[in-house]
Amino acid sequence: EAQVTQNPRYLITVTGKKLTVTCSQNMNHEYMSWYRQDPGLGLRQIYYSMNVEVTDKGDVPEGYKVSRKEKRNFPLILESPSPNQTSLYFCASSFGLSPGELFFGEGSRLTVL
Amino acid sequence: KQEVTQIPAALSVPEGENLVLNCSFTDSAIYNLQWFRQDPGKGLTSLLLIQSSQREQTSGRLNASLDKSSGRSTLYIAASQPGDSATYLCAVLMDSNYQLIWGAGTKLIIKP
User: Fold this and answer.
1) Confidence class of residue A2 from pLDDT cuts 50, 70 and 90?
2) Pick among B100, B101, B102 to test the A interface (most A CBs inside 10 A)
3) What SS3 class is residue B83?
4) What is the percent of chain B with per-residue pLDDT over 90, rounded to a whole number?
5) Which residue from A48, A90, A105 is facing B98, i.e. has the nearest CB?
6) What DSSP character marks residue B64?
7) Does B105 touch chain A if contact means CB atoms closer than 8 Å?
């Protein structure tokens, strides 16, 4: 089954404790991206990648890192999480170097205390 | 800076009605525009994608139009059903840097 898989789906952590949210797609998509969704602010793009070893900042990249060492994986790294990074995070992928139809993971709800 | 606006923020209609959701954007230099639906606690599902050179796309009871010059897109839902209840979001992909900019969504409730 074609899918985008995010882990963990739910996480409660404390300020400063490094964490990684994994994202994996099995559709051989070139384009992958991360978003956060906050009440009243909607969805905002954090980072995106058009291919292996190519990543670019979105609207709100501060406090996040990403890597794209393999085509299928695009992990989101919070080196030192802070409470303002409490949010619902989505990973998405699309065929081609520029996004067409986007396929989303089910989301990762992160709480930073 | 691109801004994407969706009006109305919420809409409640009786089952069976045809309805239109609106999406407007301030910068016409877009690569494509995409409509999504989001169900509570779930991820987003792509409904329709319109390339900048296209005027409309159709899928079943859904029809999306794009007027790039005026910065507007509409999503038309025919013969609405309770299962159509969800939040509908539009997003534009910028031509210059492939950033995706989102509207805040329209929360749609279809009453049986």
Assistant:
1) confident
2) B100
3) helix
4) 88
5) A48
6) E
7) yes
